[in-house]
Amino acid sequence: MANLQGNTSSTVHQEYLSAAVEIARKAGEEIRTTFQLKKTIEIKSSPVDLVTETDQKVEKLIISFLQNKFPDHSFIGEESTEAGSHCELTDNPTWIIDPVDGTTNFVHCFPFVAVSIGLSINKENSVGVIYNPILDEMFTAIKGGGAFCNDKPISCSKQEDICKCLAIAEVGSSRDKAHVKTKLGNIAAVIDRGAHGLRSLGSAALNMCQVARGGGDVYFEHGIHCWDMAAGAVIVTEAGGTVIDPKGGPLDLMKRNVIAASSQQLAETISSCLTHIEFPRD
Ligand code: IPD
């Protein structure tokens, strides 16, 4: 059970959070069991965009559990979308699920993989659960109720100065030459502006959790999907940070780009360093 201490949100939100935590733990057991085994791998949008049987199995497990509890809710899942399900965000409560965020890490037994479950209500990121079953870290947040890791409150660093920040970024899974060049150029630009260093965990969800717990100060990526960032957006915001569209303005979950930062000032400074890439909407 997630600790809801200090949480001022409604009982119904707490019910949603408890359900997401329960199924994230079950999904985590499956991931842990298969983590060290040899995986059967298929490729998706590019030769480095991978999927395993575990991704597909875990997504079915999560969706059937939540559908059973909340039959009127809608669902967006990474693997269901890949299999042809319609990916549409409406005002209806919508669970946005990445069964294994960090699939490449999972394939390589690099211990940064996460179950990511976000709930959007009226298009507002309302509940976020991110569970790393290998390190047994459960990050949770309800809008208005603070952010937690293993039931302990977490908060962003509040860092505003790019010259004192630890930045997190990813190259992602597109191998389009122009995209890769721009992304590497963006990393170079942030380092040139004086950032203390650059990290890359290989999981958007866990990158956002590092910002939320004050381990990193800012994370930026172009080309991710709504399921990579839905849960993390609530957790970062509730930890006192900010999530924005890299071009400025509020985060658009379906627009495939994100800056998650410990402060608005740092988010804006990072934004000014970046060359932006547009992707087709989710
Ligand atoms: C990926 C990870 C990675 C990010 C990619 C995502 P997946 O998600 O979050 O860190 O760079 O853009 O696609 O495919 O492992 O669920």
Q: What would you note in describing this structure?
A:
The chain has 282 residues and is of the alpha+beta class. The protein has 2 domains: 143 residues, 2-Layer Sandwich (Fructose-1,6-Bisphosphatase, Chain A, domain 1); 112 residues, 3-Layer(aba) Sandwich (D-Maltodextrin-Binding Protein, domain 2), CATH 3.40.190.80. The protein is built from 8 helices and 14 strands. A 7-stranded mixed β-sheet has the order 3-4-5-6-7-8-9, sandwiched between helices. Strands 11-10-12-14-13 form a 5-stranded mixed β-sheet, with helices on both faces. Strands 1-2 form a two-stranded antiparallel sheet. Helix 1 packs antiparallel against helix 2 and helix 6 runs parallel beside helix 7. The relative contact order is 0.15. Bound molecules: D-MYO-inositol-1-phosphate (IPD). The site of D-MYO-inositol-1-phosphate (IPD) has 15 residues, from strand 4.
What composes the largest sheet? 7 strands, mixed
Structural class: alpha+beta
| Dominant shape | globular
- Strand-residue proportion: 15-25%
Number of helical regions: 8
Hetero groups: D-MYO-inositol-1-phosphate
